[in-house]
Design a protein that fits this description.
mainly alpha, Arc Repressor Mutant, subunit A, 2 strands
Length: about 240
């Protein structure tokens, strides 16, 4: 890895850590009752000054808290606490999802997904291929609905995981999906999932399916690796 790439990654990690610190600070205040349920958070300007961060960094942190259903942001009114400690959807303090950064998540995916794809190409049955084709068609039907796109994307990878015929690998990948729902990746990536980017991903899913359907292991693995590299570049950009 050359020095320029190292510097870019270090910058992305540093900025990501700053967002994490702000999220942890605000989360702790909400859990402790300093910001009780239904209360309004201080203004973005006031919080940014108090925490010593830029307003952009603060907004990134609020994106994460909103994705975790801890706050609701109302344009022109501010951010309001909606967290209830007894809610079944409330993330536990210090949970795996809270402790996992986008880079952590991408590293695990880069380890698991290429091998998962490799095994699926070798083991997927014609019936499973037909079901996967329908999933790809549903992915291609999405235009701007980010939540629907994410659900279909998860459905695609769950089918791949099942096709590995390895229950442990399937369980490991299910954990990455669950962590993703609570982690920084959901908030940081989704807001950059523009209609153009959705279209790019749809093309990539189609190419990946074609490689799987023709049992082209190397092509399928290469497409998967390129997709992960693209997501890493996006993460560095969001940092």
């Amino acid at each position: 890895m050359n020095d320029t790439v190292k510097t870019d990654i270090q910058i992305g990690q540093t900025l990501g850590e700053t967002v994490r610190v702000v999220v942890d600070t605000l989360t702790a205040r909400i859990h402790s009752g300093d910001y009780p349920t239904d209360s309004r958070l201080p203004s973005e300007r006031a919080l940014a000054v108090e925490l010593g961060v830029s307003r952009n960094t603060l907004r990134e942190a609020l994106d994460v808290l909103e994705a975790r259903k801890m706050v609701r942001r109302r344009q022109g009114s501010g951010s309001f606490v909606i967290y209830h400690s007894d809610s079944p959807d409330a993330p536990l303090p210090g949970s795996l999802g809270e402790r996992t950064s986008p880079l952590d998540h991408l590293i695990v995916r880069s380890i698991i997904e290429p091998e998962m794809i490799r095994l699926a190409v070798m083991n997927m049955t014609p019936k499973e291929l037909d079901m996967l084709a329908r999933t790809v068609a549903s992915i291609e039907a999405v235009r701007t609905d980010l939540a629907e796109f994410t659900r279909r994307e998860e459905e695609f990878y769950r089918a791949i995981a099942r096709a590995t015929r390895n229950p442990l690998l399937e369980s490991c990948y299910e954990l990455t999906i669950e962590v993703c729902r609570q982690s920084f990746r959901t908030a940081l990536m989704r807001k950059h999932l523009t209609p153009d980017r959705i279209q790019t991903y749809q093309t990539r899913f189609n190419s990946l399916f074609n490689a799987i359907a023709t049992r082209d292991v190397e092509a399928a693995v290469e497409i998967t690796k390129l997709h992960l590299v693209d997501e890493q570049k996006l993460f560095l950009h969001t940092g």
